[in-house]
Amino acid sequence: MKSGFVNIFGRPNAGKSTLLNALIGEKMAIVSPKVQTTRHRIKAFLNKPGEYQVIFSDTPGIIDPKYKLHERMMNSVKTALEDADIALLIVDANENLDEADVIFQSLRLRVPCIVVLNKIDEAANGKIALAEAFFAGKSYCKQLVKISALQKVHLNKLLDAIIALLPEGSPFYSEEDLSDMPTKFFVAEMIREKIYELFGDEIPYHTAVMVNEYKEKESLVKIQADIIVNRETQKAIIIGDKGKMIREIGTTARRDIEAFIQQKVFLELFVKVRPKWRDNDLQLKEYGYK
Q: Is pLDDT at 28 greater than 80 in this prediction?
């Protein structure tokens, strides 16, 4: 039996969350073309009873913190560095390889590292060979695997490489579980994902979601959540003309939540203004950024 922590690191938008979802076969992490979508360390378990338990961790993209929120995000990266048995260093085949290398070197990992060259389906001529040659000489690169997380290309090859390096040991978590996060966390994330989908560049980064009520009744699950914003103008944008936008958030999020929990959902959303919440320790803790 093998088991261990396989933690995913990389720049924003390298495809970490898409890779996690593809490996697990379930939507565990929200995805968006916008950078800094992932704010938490999200653990997800891949179990093959009697053979292995892989505890994957998606981590926020590595950035220079500008707010206390960013500092909390980078702290979750730090904890993932400390307990990794294997590191997946994911890099977009089309991005600046030198910039990715600077980040990977700065992690100072002392565990086996697999460089995951992602988005090979979008790579221009010669880019893949160039990246392979570039990383081949790096001391941290134990192995390089080329994939497309979105198209699910070569994921079995990546998984074989992970299992080969995984230490022997008993499972850390129940083999029935997919994650150590509560359902309320995933509900909040699904609502937040819709804000990333429906609004421009500024609004999502000023927004948090807090689930206040999650009650299972006979025929449905009743959920009440607050969407937190910085300013009154942002509240007006989230609500939209005659409530159009908040209804759309609710309708699209409810569909995803129902698919996730396999139950009918009644979802009630409110918008609340909390100025400078991204720099407020108490509010960050209240919204789950510990």
A: yes
